[in-house]
Amino acid sequence: MRLSKLALALATCAGLAACGDTTGEQAILGGGAGAVGAAVLQSDPLFGAVVGAAGNVLYCKTQNNCS
């Protein structure tokens, strides 16, 4: 069980580091990663999705190597 939580946490980090080509894709990738991360931490997945979507869009818009 502990290993599966670690694997989900690493997948969440990878998802948050991914930038999509459009703002919609960025929001979906971040939202998915945020929801999974919140579920792993036994928190509210909806809140995690909102925070993840906003965070990923903000990150991708401020980095030179992202759209």
Notes on the protein architecture:
- The protein is mostly helical.
- The chain has one domain (2-62).
- The protein is 78% helix and 0% strand.
- The protein has 3 helices and no strands.
- It has helices at 2-17, 23-40, 45-62.
- The longest helix is centred in the middle third of the chain and has 18 residues, at 23-40.
- The relative contact order is 0.20.
Biggest β-sheet description? none
What form results from the Cα inertia axes?
Answer: globular
How many DSSP H or I helices? 3
Strand content: under 5%
Helix content: over 70%
Query: Mean pLDDT score, rounded?
Result: 81
Radius of gyration: 12 Å
The count of DSSP E runs of length 2 or more, i.e. the number of strands, is 0
Specify the structural class.
mainly alpha
